[in-house]
Specification:
506 residues, Hypothetical Protein Pfu-838710-001, CHAD domain, 53% helix, globular
């Protein structure tokens, strides 16, 4: 068996550019001044293989054979792992003689689970045709390969253009990948790309939109250094935030929702580790995340109103009899999506994500805090205690809280739950499960109260803009008040059960 010719892992950051920006990229000082060797040009014709049922894709694997000049290279890649914006993927590569994969080379890879029968089932499913210019750059003590790709991906009778810059770390700290990206972003309107060429091709093949990205599992141990835990959690949530951007830009409700949750969790983790973090940068990132979260929130509210509130308030026949109501709501939803698309396609989200990741990979901690002898298992209970005390204060007299007080309680509870979720493995399940179950029940009731209030507010705004829809909007408001009243009735009992339950980290 031929030994793999590449390291088992690659770390790369993908940035997208438009056709007019290509000359500026070629001439940029960050790519030209630090050249280790001359620019190398390739024509890469890559064929991806899978079974008719797309079994490799379903397992998170891609198998390709790339032709460059007269040589062929077979590569197997796994899904990105480890979090962060610079994807870290397992990769195995071998020289082969033809454009057909040699499945005997896969024996010691994840594709081995398919057995010898895989060879007979494989078929070409997509092709990428790319002209690549490679700059090997010395930057900030690291060596980074900057590959500028232009071409197209073809699959299922469709075609999608490719214009992307891949920054792949060859040696040195991953921090410099982000620093180089920020240097380029200062002069060029680049955007972070998350879809691989294989991912684009499979999307074309399946005739679908970009798929939402699930949150990666963060494996922490009690002895994990506190600073390492902070980096791991931020990386994971940034991966969710940026990974779901294509789905959100395409108007998919799940992508918008997942981006919004990732922002909430990023803001939570910044607060969780506040004692270790430098205040000026902390405040700057908090403001940037809050701003993006607000734009996402408006789009999400109208998604819920159109897809859940209206169908729940009226049966299909009633909605058919009043198409103006649906049309008015969908117009508001479309406007919110347009605002979100404009925000996501601008430079701010990319700049914020790259700056946050660079800060995290550098030294975001207060001088001297890294020398704190407390391990994670000692740091966490203190912070969870603080969050729990805040929840207890916010929940006093819960049955008499006004809407603002209930909203504040809901945010405090979410912050506690998001934080606690990362550390449940440190404690016995018999203590963790009751606490989380009751917390979810309380959070659900507070969520119902908030959703009902939002639905009523949006209905009122429609009635104001379209007086002829006032009676329909009044029905929505009335139903929302009933939802809110029911949840308010259950709230004192749910609060009492949660408040008297032992906190599992004590």
């Amino acid at each position: 068996m031929t030994a793999p010719t590449s390291p088992p892992q690659e770390i790369e950051l993908k940035l997208l550019f438009s056709a007019p920006d290509r000359p500026g990229l070629d001439r940029h000082p960050a790519l030209c001044d630090g050249l280790v060797s001359g620019v190398v040009h390739h024509h890469l014709l890559t064929t991806y293989y899978d079974t008719p049922a797309l079994a490799l894709y379903e397992k998170g694997l891609s198998l390709r054979v790339r032709q460059s000049g007269g040589a062929y290279t077979q590569t197997l890649k796994s899904d990105a792992a480890g979090g962060g914006l610079a994807a870290s993927r397992d990769e195995w590569a071998w020289p082969v003689r033809t454009n057909r994969p040699d499945t005997t080379l896969l024996a010691k890879t994840p594709a081995a689970v398919f057995g010898p029968a895989l060879a007979e089932k494989l078929m070409p499913v997509l092709v990428s045709d790319i002209r690549r210019s490679v700059h090997l750059v010395a930057y900030g003590g690291a060596v980074i390969e900057a590959a500028i790709d232009e071409g197209a991906v073809r699959a299922g009778g469709g075609e999608e253009p490719v214009r992307e810059l891949e920054l792949e770390l060859k040696e040195g700290p991953v921090l410099q990948v982000y620093c180089l990206a920020l240097r380029l972003l200062a002069d060029l309107p680049l955007r972070i790309g998350v879809e691989t060429k294989a991912g684009r091709g499979y999307r074309l093949l399946r005739g679908g939109l970009p798929e939402p990205v699930a949150e990666p599992v963060v494996l922490l141990a009690p002895e994990t250094p506190t600073e390492d835990a902070f980096r791991m959690i931020v990386r994971s949530q940034l991966a969710v935030l940026i990974g779901n951007q294509p789905a959100a830009e395409a108007g998919q409700p799940d992508g918008i929702h997942d981006m919004r949750v990732a922002i909430r969790k990023l803001r939570t983790v910044l607060r969780l580790f506040t004692p270790r973090l430098a205040p000026p940068e902390l405040e700057r990132f908090e403001e940037a995340l809050q701003r993006l979260g607000q734009v996402l929130g408006v789009a999400r509210d109208w998604d819920v109103f159109c897809l859940q509130t209206l169908p729940a308030a009226f049966d299909p026949r009633e909605l058919d009899e009043c198409p103006q109501l649906v049309a008015a709501a969908e117009e508001k939803r479309a406007a919110a999506h347009e605002d979100l698309h404009a925000e996501l396609s601008g430079p701010a989200p990319t700049m914020m994500a790259l700056e946050l990741m660079a800060w995290v990979e550098d030294t975001p901690f207060v001088p001297g805090s890294a020398a704190d002898p407390d391990p994670l298992c000692a740091f966490v209970p203190k912070r969870l205690d603080r969050f729990a005390r805040k929840v207890a204060r916010r929940g006093r007299g819960v049955g008499h809280l006004d809407p603002k007080g209930l909203h504040t309680l809901r945010k405090a509870l979410k912050r506690l739950r998001y934080s606690a979720d990362y550390f449940t493995a440190f404690y016995p399940a018999r203590h963790v499960k009751p606490y989380l179950k009751l917390g979810r029940g309380l959070q659900s009731a507070l969520g119902e109260i908030n959703d009902a209030a939002v639905a009523a507010t949006l209905a009122d705004s429609l009635a104001l803009a379209h007086p002829n829809l006032a009676s329909f909007c009044a029905d929505i408001v009335q139903r929302s008040h009933k939802r809110r009243k029911k949840s308010l009735h259950d709230l004192p009992r749910l609060w009492k059960d949660f408040h008297k339950t032992d906190e599992f980290w004590r």
